[in-house]
Structures are given as C-alpha cells and as structure tokens.
Amino acid sequence: MAGADADPAAPVAAPKKSDLPVRVASAVVMLLVAGLAVWRGGVALDGFIALVGLAVFGEYVRLVSRIAPNPAKMSAAVLTGAIYVGWAAFALIVMPVALLVGIMGLVICTDTGAYFTGRAIGGPKIAPKISPSKTWAGLAGGMAAAGIWTALATLTGGYFISAIGPTGPSFGEALRITNVGFAALAGAGLAVVAQAGDFYESWLKRRAGVKDSSRLIPGHGGVFDRVDGLLPVAIVVGTLWALGAGR
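and the corresponding structure tokens:
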C-alpha cells in the first residue's frame, strides 16, 4: 500500500562505505614513492619512470585488446601505444629534474583546478559521451590553475637565477629576466593538452567498457588513470626542450 511503513522483516541495505580513506592512503603512498625517486635522482628516478611506463603500456594493451576487432588492428593499436607511452617516458627521463617536477605540478594543478571548479560551477559538458563529468567551467578552472602554477614556477626559477648576479637574489630582477605572462599562457595551453590526454584515456575505457584501466592502485584504479594527462604534456614539453637544447 502506498505510504505504508516498510516491512520490518525486509533486509535493510547497508550504507555504502566511503572509499575516501583508501584513496587518501594510496595517494600518500604514491606521492612518497614518486618523491623519493625524484629525490634520489639518477638511476633510481630513471628506473621508476621506466617501471611506470611499462605499467601504463600494459594497461594500454589491456584496453585495446578489448577494442580491436582483429589481429591487424590490434598490432597497429599496440604499436601506437608503444610510441605514445615510450615517447612520454623517454621525454621524462632525459629532461632536467626541475622541468620534470614543473610539469608534474602543472598536471596536478590542472586536475585539481578542473575538479573543484567543475563541481562548484557545473554547466555544459565538453564531451558527455566520452567523459560525463568534465565541463567547460572545469576546463577553464584547470587552465587558470595551471597558468598560475607555471607563472609562479617561472618566477621562482628567475629568483634563483638572479642570486648569481652581483646584487643577489631579487624578485624585481626575476621579473626582468623572465616572461611571467608568457609562462602563464603556456601553462594554460598545456592544461588543454593534459585534458586531451585525459579524454583520450576516457575514450579508450568507454570503448573497452571498463571504468578503470586496472585495479592496481586501491581506490584509484590503474597507473594509466593517474598519468593520462601527464603523458601528452611530457611529449610536448620534452620535445620542445630537446629542440631548444639542441640549438
């Protein structure tokens, strides 16, 4: 009967347990491991990047194996993944550690800015069939956060460089020798690149019919899920740095 009390004998659904503690614990462990690798540098850092790259490539192959309709297309997809992941990993290995830390911070700021701005403002979705939660407002927030991060990182680098001069460290000199505005615009542009990498992985998962690239990291899915935005940014920044360093 409508409006009647629920049957006391009926089983009561248990409240859904939050996975936030697991997610936080996993995030702390990931940051500690990555931070230790960066701190040690050298072979330890290169080995860590290579290991992460292999894990990502394995998850990439797992996804495309559920998509490719025949061996020929599977081979082409695997080759594409090898180039994509391998190029990014190689770029991260050869670039200076300061640049590596800078783009990692940029991707984190992009994701954080996009998440909180998207939740606070909402609005139209970018591509709901690929990633239902991503909005144009979130993208703008991610671009703003990345731009601020890049501007501050550039200004900080200029401050340390100014310490070499006869007048000692000076933020005025740092502003003179750096182009903070251009850095902010570059950071905002790279945020779009990071989001494109996120969309690419979401598209693969959507076609493969899975929620996560794997279940390797408790509460976070797979390694690919965590570095999807970092891969294209590493390719773009690493390639530009290599071209500049080769002059």
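(Above: one complete record from the training split.) The CA atoms of residues 7 and 48 lie 56 Å apart.
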